[in-house]
UniProtKB/TrEMBL annotation:
This is Fur family transcriptional regulator. SUPFAM superfamilies: Winged helix' DNA-binding domain. Belongs to the Fur family. It comes from the Bacteria. Keywords: DNA-binding, Repressor, Transcription, Transcription regulation, Zinc. The lineage of its organism: Bacteria, Bacillati, Bacillota, Bacilli, Bacillales.
Length: 154
């Protein structure tokens, strides 16, 4: 975790920003809950436990800065809530998601399935793709097994 925090600190410094204690507390919460796709309010509640002096507005500003700096990805899964997800060093692009419309669960696809399509877009349209994201919405295996489709009987 410390190595990732140091890398984020260096990235911010290269753009003229500092990793203040408030920003560091926010980054630590994101790292500790990396698989949870936290909302700003979720982050705030967790940051408050570590640093009670930090206000919600500070967390919002920090998340927006981290989003602008491409440290986190700001996402909306159709529920009206912005969620934040740390970008990983090993992927050029953000990962993709499977979103259950029944229970709201999210699974991640870490492979970049869109790279061949991105290369085709660049080749055929002369369009330089900087990033992409793919979200599949459907019904997860658990919800399907809990509520199998009903068949009509005559």
């Amino acid at each position: 975790m410390e190595a990732r925090i140091e890398k984020i600190k260096q990235h911010l410094q290269s753009q003229g920003y500092k990793l203040t204690p408030q920003r560091e507390a926010t980054v630590r919460v994101l790292l500790e809950n990396e698989e949870d796709h936290l909302s700003a309010e979720d982050v705030f509640m967790l940051v408050k436990d570590k640093a009670p002096e930090i206000g919600l507005a500070t967390v919002y500003r920090t998340l927006e800065l981290l989003s602008e700096m491409h440290v986190v990805e700001k996402m909306n899964f159709g529920d009206g809530v912005a969620r934040y997800d740390l970008r990983t060093d090993n992927n050029k692009h953000h990962h993709h998601h499977l979103i259950c419309v029944k229970c709201g669960s999210m699974s991640e696809i870490m492979e970049d399935w869109l790279l061949p399509l991105e290369e085709r877009v660049e080749r055929e349209y002369g369009f330089t793709v900087l990033d992409h994201r793919l979200d599949f919405q459907g019904i997860c295996a658990k919800c399907q097994s809990d509520h199998p489709p009903q068949t009509e009987t005559n």
